[in-house]
Amino acid sequence: MPDPHPPAPRDSSVPHGGLPVVGMIGAGQLARMTHQAAIALGQSLRVLAASPTDPAAQVCRDVHIGTDLAAMRAFAAGTAAVTFDHEGVPQADLRTLAAAGVTLHPGPDALLHAQDKLVMRRRLAELGIAVPAFAEITSPDDFAAFSAEHGGAVLKAVRGGYDGRGVWLDATPELVAELLAAGTPLMAEQRVAMRRELAALVARSPYGQAAAWPVVETVQEDGQCVQVLAPAPGLDEEVAVATQATALRIATELGVTGLLAVELFETDTGAMVVNELAMRPHNSGHWTIEGARTSQFEQHLRAVLDYPLGSTAMTAPAVVMANVLGARTEPETSLDERCHHLFARFPDVKVHLYGKAPRPARKIGHVTALGDDPVAVRERAVLAATWLSTAEWADGWSIHGARKETAHVV
User: Fold this and answer.
1) In what order do the strands lie in the sheet with 81-84?
2) How far is CA 225 from CA 35, 168, 229, 278, 380, in A?
3) Which residue, of 129, 132, 219, 273, has the fewest CB within 10 Å?
4) How far is residue 45's CA from residue 169's CA, in Å, rounded to a whole number?
5) d(C-alpha 169, C-alpha 156), whole Å
6) What DSSP designation does 314 have?
7) Residues paired with 274 in a beta bridge
8) How far apart are the first and last CA of the chain?
9) What digits encode the pLDDT tens for the residues 176-204?
10) Rounded-to-integer distance, Cα 66 and Cα 57, Å
11) Torsion sign, CA atoms 266, 293, 350, 205
12) Residues 6+ apart with CB under 8 A from 87
């Protein structure tokens, strides 16, 4: 990829030795994997953690602890830029930091669209980008009227919520009244008759350079992503390119700097409807660590520092990421031993563990498989993730009966 502009001069926030410090508010697995990318780029990642046991705090050298504005002020001192691994920072705090001269990527105006679903829906509708029919809900009667008009509705919390939280598929007037009484801002959306869920991941630098990865399919169970298939199987090339273009347009129109994940519904008619936005590394992009020339985490750092962006070309025809979720009952077999058995069977599958204590359905890691045959690649990834979660091979495989066979696999 040609250099789109000459290197920007580094400012006084670059410490001695020329290595910029990027601050990331939040220290979950996204910050942990961003830290890994920063090491390869010769950069230093500083994280603001809620606890020393947070995933990134376990591995980063430069860790600050705290969640309030005072902690963020101290944390931001000396950074070249500050970014985020979650959208939970209050707008008032973001604007105070920006007014104090802290470089934020994305900025408060852009990030608001990932924090407030109603603001996002209204803005995308203004831009002529397809979204579900929606309405603000201020009373049970509002919800009843919207539901009657649209043949049913989904109730959503306007702010917060992820992995199915903050979404109610079978809301009642009593629930609406209860949530409003508790101070939860609400909106309703028309139910979308969808074929599947997709995601378009793009990056944009302050200079305005942008890059897009292939559109992927995100497989959901109980409102939570369990697999990502790259590229999205059977997606028409023209539709894929148009979807990437829509994501790039959203990034430009909203002034996003860094990563933008656009989550979409593919309807029964083949139309694309935007569901959610995230302005940070995203679960739908974990496959890029091994599956793309430039991972989402490296690209996010490049964008935040206004470096030229890296190639998003895939490294294999088919890539599948499968989340490792905490089991209903924690297996007696240790996670270390589960890894040992997994590596013996699938030495090509890459494992990423987040250092998180397991609990049912919690994301504690992910695996990535690559290859030429999408069906076979997906089968390996799902078998591997299920084994790490439950210590059970879904196909009945046993390491003891296959030791001779696997001894020659390289």
Assistant:
1) 62-65, 44-49, 21-25, 81-84
2) 23, 17, 11, 14, 17
3) 273
4) 40
5) 9
6) B
7) 264
8) 33
9) 999 999 999 999 999 989 999 999 999 99
10) 12
11) negative
12) 111, 114, 115, 278, 279, 280
d(CA 147, CA 169): 11
Q: Give per-residue pLDDT as tens, 229-241.
A: 999 999 999 999 9
For the stretch 243-272, pLDDT in tens is 999 999 999 999 999 999 999 999 999 999
What single letter denotes the amino acid at residue 301? L
Closest CA to 72 of 46, 52, 54: 46
Handedness of CA 149, 114, 238, 321 (dihedral sign): negative
Strand 62-65 vs strand 44-49: parallel, antiparallel, or unpaired? parallel
Q: Is 410 helix (H, G, I), strand (E, B) or coil?
A: coil
Residue of 242, 221, 218, 244 whose CA lies nearest to 232: 218
pLDDT tens-digit series, residues 80-119: 999 999 999 999 999 999 999 999 999 999 999 999 999 9
Q: What's at 267, amino acid-wise? A: T
How many CB atoms lie under 10 A from the CB of residue 75? 24
Residues forming beta bridges with residue 82, ordered by sequence position? 23, 104
CB 237 within 8 A of CB 231: no
- Other residues' Cβ atoms within 10 Å of the Cβ of residue 133: 15
The length of the chain, given as a count of residues:
410
How far apart CA 84 and CA 297 sit, in angstroms, is 12
Report the amino acid identity of residue 19: L
Q: What is the C-alpha to C-alpha distance for residues 200 and 292, in angstroms, rounded to an integer?
A: 14
Res 166: pLDDT: 87
Choose among 92, 74, 96, 72: nearest CA to 84: 72
Mean pLDDT of the chain: 92
The first and second tokens of residue 252, run together, are: 């430009």
d(CA 168, CA 232): 27
Going by the DSSP 8-state scheme, the letter that residue 21 receives in this structure is: E
Residue 231 tokens read as: 């590229």
CA distance 99 to 69: 13
Q: State the Cα–Cα distance between residues 251 and 65, nearest whole angstrom.
A: 31
Question: Which helix (H) or strand (E) element contains residue 33?
Answer: helix 29-40
Contact 262, 253 (CB under 8 A): no
Three-class DSSP labels, 329-387:
CCCCCCHHHHHHHHHHHCCCCEEEECCCCCCCCCEEEEEEEEECCHHHHHHHHHHHHHH
